[in-house]
Amino acid sequence: MSRSRSEFILVWILRGMALLVAAIVLSIVLFLLWETVPILQTVGFNRFFNDPSWHPSSEEFNLLPMLWGTLFVTAGAVLIAAPLGILSAIFCQYYAPAAIASLYRRFIELLAGIPSVVYGFWGLVVLVPLIGRIQPPGASLLTGILILTLMILPTITLVAHSSLASVPPEYERGCAAMGLGRWATVRGVVLPATKAGLLTSVILGTGRAIGETMAVLMVCGNVVQIPLSVFEPVRTLTANIALEMAYATGNHRAALFVSGLVLMAMVVVLVIAAELLSRGQIYD
Fold first, then answer.
1. Is there a contact between 193 and 215 (Cβ–Cβ < 8 Å)?
2. For residue 8, what pLDDT band results from cuts at 50, 70 and 90?
3. At a CB cut-off of 8 Å and minimum separation 6, what does 37 contact?
4. 74 Cβ partners below 8 Å, 6+ apart?
5. Residues of 16-38 as b/e, b for ≥16 C-beta within 10 angstroms?
6. Which residue from 150, 144, 185, 147 is spatially nearest to 168, judged by alpha carbons?
7. pLDDT tens across 83-122, in order?
8. Within 13 Å of residue 68, how many CA atoms lie on the same side as its CB?
9. Where are the beta strands (DSSP E) in 76-173?
10. CB 248, CB 61: distance < 8 Å
11. Which residues touch 253 (CB under 8 Å, ≥6 apart)?
12. Beta bridge mates, 234
């Protein structure tokens, strides 16, 4: 087979894979719309934010407590994990000795591969009692934030490290020729050159935090309320679906699909915001 013919076949295989992925995403969105349109037509969209509470058996579908729970847990975890992850990547790439950097990277990769249920179980038996001694009941927004921080930290660190490692060595040699120190090089040249990659790492971490289910279900307490402090229990949208999908029927089941549609909308807003912030350079 000639080289041009093999490349032609490869291009069409790649196009087919890209179309397959796009079709999967589109089918998920269409399925969510198919399941949610009937209840949106009969109940209305506003009731999902204006009803007194979440009692599907009494036809009350307020999703705001779960929506705020999701936003609080995600925002708290990202605020802690993003600087930790990026600074860890900088340390690993520019300051750590080669042996320590290699060992540290393997440790982070190990953290990334641990199943979420293990994180949740560890949080349930270690973090929940520990925080419960400070402020009962222990299963709370703070516990969820700490567990999610651990879970998204490897994602942010590994993607940020890959972005830092892709900086051309000519940049560093040029800075050294100008007499700039290592931190001045990192701050003045490396970070601006890799801002798109660093933002991508935060976006990927945020996406994982929004969609995490099992760990937050095990440590957040799952009380339907808007928390007034970090020590109060919360329920996230993903935990709400996982807890009730097994026995939900009729409008209750459809309302859970509305929860999924809201989650999908949050991810879309996140991607659009990131694209606007990076001015179209996020995937460079």
1. no
2. confident
3. none
4. 148, 206, 209, 210
5. eeeeeeeeeeeeeeeebeebbee
6. 185
7. 999 999 999 999 989 899 899 888 998 988 899 999 999 9
8. 15
9. none
10. no
11. 35, 245
12. 221
* CA pair distance 108, 153, nearest whole angstrom: 8
Instruction: Give me the half-sphere count of Cα atoms (radius 13 Å) on the Cβ side of residue 148.
Output: 34
Dump pLDDT digits (tens) for 181-225: 888 889 888 998 888 889 888 988 998 899 888 899 999 999 999
CB atoms under 10 Å from CB of 8, counted, come to 12
Quick check: 131 and 220 in contact, CB under 8 A? no
Residue 83, both tokens: 């600087």
Number of residues written out for the chain:
284
| Cβ contacts of 131-134, under 8 Å, gap ≥ 24 | 131/231, 134/231
Evaluate if pTM is beyond 0.85. yes
